[in-house]
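Worked example 3 (structure in, sequence out).
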C-alpha cells in the first residue's frame, strides 16, 4: 500500500538533480484577508494532497495562477513564495492574469467550451474565437514562465488539466530536452463529439507534445487515441498505447485518481467531528432518521436535478418513507461568473422548495439544502452519519465524493448509490449502480439502499473500503510519477 512516506522515498531515490515543475490553474496555497490580517489557506483538493509530498521531496516548483486577494502581498519580486509558509520546502510561483485574460482563458474557453465539450451532459459548448485567442496567449504565458525557470535543463514538467492543452507542444518547441507529462482530470469524449470544436486539431497536436498523457480510465484513453487517429497524420501503436507523430512518442495511460483514505478515516473519528455530529443531528433534527446525503460542486454535470426527481418519486410512490428519510444536499456554489451555471442554481433551489412544500410536515423537512462551501469538519460529520450517499453525475472523470464517503465510513455501514457514468463506477463495483436519467430505477435503488439487509450492507462496504485503501491518492501519485521518472531514461 502506498503512503505519503513511500511516495517521498520514490522521488528521493529516482529524481536525481532534475528540476521538478508542476503547472496547474489552481494554487495549493491561497492568501486571503481575515479582517485586516493575511491568512494562508490550503483549499481542500485531492490534487494538492497527492502533489504536496511529491513537491516537498523534490523541493520543486509549482506554477499556478495567483487568485487570492492577498496573494500579491506576500510574494517576492519574482512572484514566488516558499510553501508551506510555516516550514517552506518548495516554491510556489504565482502568475497574474488580467481580467480579460481570466475571462477568455478560464471562464471562457476552459469552462464554456472545453468543459461542456468533454462532458456529455447536453450543454452546448460556446466556441468564441476571442476566448480561443486568449486561451492560446495564456498557454504561451505559462510556457514562458516555465522556461524562465528551467532554461535548457532536462527538467520534468507535470501539467494539470484542460486549461493547458497547448502548453506541452509549446514547451517541447522551446526545449526539446524537457520531459513533459499531463493529467487530464475530465472525460475525453469520442471523436464525433470532439471534432465539433473548430480548433480540435490544434488541441490534439498540443497534447501530443506530452511524453505521457494520463486519463482516469481506459475508456477515455481509447477515445483520445481514436480522436488522434481521425484528426491528424500519425501512427498509433494500440498494443502499447503510444502515438507516434513526427518522430515523437506520446504514451497514453489510465491513472484512476483517489483520496487520502487513511487521513479521511482518521478524521471521521476525531473528537472535532464527533462534536460536529452532535451539533448537526441536533440542529437538523436527524435523531433516529435514515439519512441520505449528496455532496457536490453545483454543476450541471453532477445530476442534482435528476437526484431530486428520484427523491420526489420516492415520497410520492412510497408514502410510508415520509417522516423516516431525510436527504441532506450539500452544494458548493461554483463558477457563478459563468452564465451556464445560473440556471442550475435556480433549478435546484426551486425543486428543493417544491419537494419540501409537497411532502413536508410540521415536524419533518424531507430535504435539507445546505448551499455553501461547507467546512471539512461538517462534510466529514455528514459523511460519517449518512446511511446512504448518492452520486448521480451525468458524466464525471472520476468523482472523489464517492471515495470520500467510503473512506469516512469507519463503521463499515452505509450504501453508495453511484452513477454508471462516473470513472469511479469502473472501480467501485459494490456500489448500487444507477443511470441518473432512469428515474424509476433510480428511485428503486434508493429504496434498496434504505432497506438493504445489514449483513449485505456491511459486506459491500468492507469490499469498497478495501478497494479505496488499495488505490489511494498516493498510489495514483506513485504510479504516475514512476512513469514520468522512467521516461527520463537514466
Ligand atoms: P470535480 O468536478 O470538482 O473534480 P469531484 O471529484 O467530485 O469533482 O471533487 C469535488 C470535491 O469538492 C470533493 O473533494 C468534495 O468533497 C468537494 N466538495 C463538494 N461539495 C462541497 C461542498 N458543498 N463544500 C465543500 N467541498 C465540497 C474534477 C473532475 C472529477 C475528478 C476530480 C479529480 O470533474 O471527475 O474526480 O477533478 O481528478
Amino acid at each position: 500500500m502506498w503512503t505519503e512516506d513511500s511516495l517521498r522515498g520514490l522521488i528521493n531515490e529516482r529524481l536525481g538533480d532534475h528540476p521538478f515543475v508542476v503547472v496547474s490553474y489552481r494554487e495549493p496555497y491561497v492568501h486571503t484577508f481575515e479582517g485586516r490580517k493575511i491568512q494562508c489557506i490550503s483549499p481542500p483538493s485531492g490534487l494538492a494532497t497527492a502533489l504536496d509530498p511529491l513537491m516537498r521531496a523534490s523541493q520543486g516548483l509549482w506554477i499556478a495562477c495567483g487568485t487570492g486577494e492577498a496573494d500579491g502581498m506576500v510574494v517576492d519580486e519574482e512572484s514566488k513564495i516558499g510553501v508551506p509558509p510555516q516550514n517552506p520546502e518548495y516554491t510556489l510561483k504565482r502568475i497574474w492574469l488580467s481580467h480579460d485574460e481570466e475571462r477568455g482563458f478560464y471562464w471562457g474557453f476552459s469552462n464554456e467550451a472545453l468543459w461542456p465539450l468533454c462532458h456529455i451532459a447536453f450543454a452546448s459548448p460556446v466556441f468564441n474565437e476571442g476566448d480561443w485567442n486568449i486561451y492560446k496567449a495564456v498557454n504561451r504565458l505559462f510556457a514562458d514562465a516555465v522556461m524562465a525557470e528551467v532554461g535548457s535543463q532536462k527538467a520534468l514538467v507535470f501539467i494539470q488539466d484542460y486549461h493547458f492543452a497547448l502548453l506541452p507542444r509549446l514547451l517541447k518547441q522551446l526545449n526539446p530536452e524537457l520531459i513533459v507529462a499531463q493529467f487530464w482530470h475530465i472525460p475525453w469524449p469520442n471523436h464525433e463529439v470532439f471534432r465539433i470544436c473548430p480548433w480540435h486539431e490544434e488541441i490534439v497536436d498540443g497534447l501530443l507534445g506530452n511524453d505521457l498523457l494520463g486519463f482516469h480510465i481506459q475508456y477515455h484513453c481509447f477515445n483520445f487515441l481514436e480522436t488522434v487517429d481521425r484528426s491528424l497524420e500519425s501512427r498509433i501503436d494500440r498494443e502499447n498505447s503510444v502515438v507516434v507523430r513526427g518522430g515523437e512518442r506520446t504514451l497514453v495511460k489510465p491513472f484512476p485518481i483517489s483520496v487520502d483514505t487513511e487521513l479521511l478515516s482518521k478524521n471521521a473519528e476525531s473528537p472535532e467531528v464527533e462534536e460536529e455530529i452532535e451539533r448537526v443531528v441536533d440542529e437538523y433534527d436527524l435523531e433516529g432518521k435514515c439519512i441520505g446525503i449528496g455532496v457536490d460542486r453545483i454543476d450541471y454535470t453532477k445530476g442534482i436535478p435528476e437526484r431530486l426527481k428520484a427523491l420526489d418519486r420516492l415520497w410520492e410512490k412510497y408514502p410510508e418513507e415520509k417522516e423516516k428519510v431525510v436527504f441532506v444536499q450539500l452544494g458548493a456554489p461554483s463558477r457563478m461568473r459563468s452564465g451556464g451555471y445560473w440556471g442550475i442554481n435556480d433549478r435546484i433551489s426551486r425543486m428543493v422548495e417544491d419537494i419540501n412544500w409537497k411532502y413536508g410536515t410540521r415536524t419533518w423537512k424531507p430535504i435539507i439544502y445546505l448551499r455553501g462551501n461547507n467546512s471539512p469538519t461538517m462534510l466529514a460529520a455528514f459523511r460519517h452519519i449518512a446511511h446512504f450517499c448518492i452520486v448521480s453525475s451525468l458524466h464525471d472523470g472520476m468523482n472523489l465524493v464517492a471515495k470520500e464517503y467510503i473512506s469516512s465510513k469507519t463503521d463499515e455501514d452505509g450504501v453508495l448509490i453511484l452513477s454508471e457514468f462516473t470513472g469511479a463506477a469502473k472501480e467501485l463495483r459494490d456500489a448500487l449502480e444507477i443511470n441518473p436519467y432512469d428515474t424509476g430505477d433510480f428511485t428503486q435503488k434508493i429504496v434498496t439502499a434504505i432497506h438493504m439487509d445489514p449483513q449485505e450492507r456491511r459486506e459491500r462496504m468492507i469490499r469498497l473500503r478495501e478497494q479505496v485503501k488499495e488505490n489511494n491518492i498516493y498510489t495514483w501519485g506513485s504510479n504516475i510519477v514512476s512513469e514520468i521518472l522512467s521516461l527520463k531514461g537514466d
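Notes: Residues 46, 185-186, 257, 295-297, 330-332, 373-374, 379, 396-401, 404 surround adenosine-5'-diphosphate-glucose (CB under 6 Å). The longest strand covers residues 290-297.
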